[in-house]
Amino acid sequence: MGKDGTTKLQEEKDTVSAMIHIYCKGRHGTADGLCVDCQELLDYADTRLDKCPFGVDKPKCSNCKVHCYQPEQRERIKEIMRYAGPRMILKHPLKAVGHALRGKGSRRVP
Ligand SMILES: [Zn+2]
């Protein structure tokens, strides 16, 4: 195991990346990788995470009090999370379960 903080940050980045991929494939019909818009948003999200004032102790972005996203990107990320959230359970069972445990509702996963 490396430094705990970097792992957590990386985990958040992986989750965002996975969700954007699911969304882009489902909504934009991208077969491989991401379309230009989604790639741009992913880069943006990565940059926000790198510059997060909470650093390694950051809460999940969805619970964060500091709204560091610009309104437009924020709306897009929210839409992506709404779309990809439920689908994460199928594609990334472990990540989805981890999210459910850390989140407020404890949804049962069959
Ligand atoms: Zn896309």
The total of beta strands comes to 0
Q: What structural category arises from helix and sheet content?
A: mainly alpha
Distance between the termini: 30 Å
Tell me the major beta sheet: none
Oligomer: single chain
Total count of helical runs of at least 4 residues: 4
Overall number of domains: 1
Low-pLDDT stretches:
none
Order of helices and strands: HHHH
> Roughly how much helix do the residues carry, as a percent range?
55-70%
Ions, cofactors and other bound molecules: zinc ion
Average of pLDDT:
78
Estimated radius of gyration:
14 Å
Shape: globular
**Strand percentage:** under 5%
Give your account of this protein's structure.
This protein is an all-alpha fold and 110 residues long. The longest helix is centred in the first third of the chain and has 25 residues, at 4-28. Helices cover 65% and strands 0% of the residues. The mean pLDDT is 78. Helix 1 (4-28) packs antiparallel against helix 2. The protein has one domain. The chain is built from four helices and no strands. It is globular, with a radius of gyration of 14 Å. It has helices at residues 4-28, 36-50, 71-91, 93-102. It binds zinc ion (ZN). Zinc ion (ZN) binds next to helix 1 and helix 2.
Write the layout of secondary structure elements.
Elements: H1 4-28, H2 36-50, H3 71-91, H4 93-102
The structure holds zinc ion (ZN).
Zinc ion binds next to helix 1 and helix 2.
